[in-house]
Design goal:
1 helix; mainly beta; five-stranded antiparallel β-sheet; eight-stranded antiparallel β-sheet
Length: about 190
């Protein structure tokens, strides 16, 4: 009888383990579901438009800034850019009305940046990416985790940055449009 109890206990643990990924997916809050920008405040004059479940811009300059502020979080999203595009994901923005690479962490999307040190996959002024990934002309995925002073950036499944920095503790998240054609979809976040 004791052996049967142990086997049933191990079986229950294994079954519970199979449910963990699904419950982890449910922990995410959808910031952009393809239908509206209710979670964001636009700043600047970028011509953001939703077409076929994707939000994008191709002129002007500006950001979609979350209405909520985040300290420790896990963010996932997909982006599509053309070759000359300049964009980025700004996190822990200190001033949600004037977002820039000096008052927040900018996880860059800029394959053709003149100074390649902080190109796509890097964090501007903080950390260079570990690999060169050309993102133009296709869908790409970012997985960004910010916990305490640690920032981890994964691009298309490749670990690009794992760095410690204490400049910014919390703040909104901002999606940037700077140049070229920039599109986002599947933008989700969960607190850690």
């Amino acid at each position: 009888m004791k052996r049967a109890s142990i086997v049933l206990g191990l079986l229950a643990i294994a079954v519970a383990g199979f449910h963990s990924p699904a419950s982890a997916q449910e922990d995410f809050t959808v910031l952009f579901d393809g239908s509206n920008l209710d979670a964001f405040n636009p700043i600047g004059d970028a011509n953001w438009e939703i077409v076929d479940g994707v939000v994008g811009a191709d002129s002007g300059s500006g950001f979609l800034v979350t209405k909520e502020s985040y300290g420790d979080f896990h963010l996932t999203l997909d982006f599509w850019v053309d070759e000359p595009a300049n964009s980025g994901i700004f996190v822990r923005c200190a001033d949600p009305t004037s977002v820039n690479d000096r008052n927040s962490y900018e996880v860059n999307i800029y394959d053709t940046r003149a100074d390649q040190t902080y190109r796509t996959g890097g964090i501007v002024h903080i950390a260079a990416p570990s690999s060169v990934v050309m993102t133009g002309g296709r869908w790409n995925s970012y997985d960004i985790r910010v916990e305490g002073s640690r920032i981890l950036v994964t691009l298309n499944g490749l670990h690009m940055v794992d760095v410690e920095d204490t400049q910014f503790a919390d703040g909104p998240i901002a999606l940037q449009y700077g140049l070229g054609v920039v599109k986002f979809r599947n933008v989700r976040v969960r607190g850690l």
